[in-house]
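Data card: per-record layout.
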Amino acid sequence: MQTEPDQPAAYPSVSDDDRARRIAARWDYERKDARDSGRAGQAELIEAAYARPELRRLCPYTSHWALRFATVPLPERPGVAEGEVSVNTVSVFVTSAGRYAVKEDFWGPVVAEFATAAEAVAATIRLAEAGGPDVRHSGSSTSAP
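The structure for this 145-residue chain is written out next.
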């Protein structure tokens, strides 16, 4: 077995021919990394996403503490095969104020903020399913300025 490129040694290696196991291993890595990070709210965010079956089938990854998802496990994403879809535009992260923010894409503006990780994850799913930024709902969310 080979280790994933550009991943810490703690990332569990699994065979390349078993995507479900690779995605599960990536979830294990992200969950452990979030717990070990000590970053406020990060573990809650990852666990809220992991609790949702529709996200658990996707490959999670973080960049600059933002959680994103792909249908293709790492390291396959850079060379996504024709017909494969990489869902890596929606992102969710913990703000410096301890709220959970959702973006339509990694570089775009925040489209909504939520008080809880579970609310932000639900909005992330709505955004991905709808293909647009209308993720706001009544409750504890606030629209971004």
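Known properties of this structure: The longest strand covers residues 59-63. The chain has one domain: 19-76+84-143.

See the next section for split statistics.
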